[in-house]
Specification:
Layout: H1 4-12, H2 31-42, E1 49-51, H3 52-57, H4 65-72, E2 77-79, H5 80-99
Antiparallel strand pairs: 1-2
Helix pairs in contact: 2-5
Length: about 110
């Protein structure tokens, strides 16, 4: 999955819910919540995009570079729209798999 690099960065910075900085609802964080958190923690250039260099500094494993760049596109940076599109597709796939009763070994 091309979201792996972004999720890796998210996991590395350990999103934690709190009343002041948590998800917008009481459930799990939305793709928008995750993306906003990544930008807040990792966008050192403050251009509303994450470069591969920023992702690595923020904890993304170096072997995820290819997947990251696939999501990033021509400018080699991931913006909120790119992140949300891939995140929502991944969440939909994960939800479908869970409804089928678990992993079929395709991951």
């Amino acid at each position: 999955f091309s979201l792996i690099a972004l999720v890796g960065a998210t996991a590395a910075i350990k999103i934690r819910s709190s009343k002041s900085d948590g998800p917008s609802s009481g459930g799990p964080p939305s793709c928008e919540d995750i993306g906003e958190h990544i930008l807040k923690k990792c966008d050192s250039s403050e251009n509303s995009k994450i470069s591969w260099k920023e992702a690595v500094v923020c904890g993304a494993p170096k072997d995820f570079k290819g997947e990251f760049l696939k999501v990033a596109g021509k400018d080699a940076e991931v913006d909120m729209g790119e992140f949300v599109k891939v995140c929502e597709a991944h969440m939909k796939d994960a939800s479908s798999l869970a409804q089928k009763g678990g992993s079929d070994g395709s991951y």
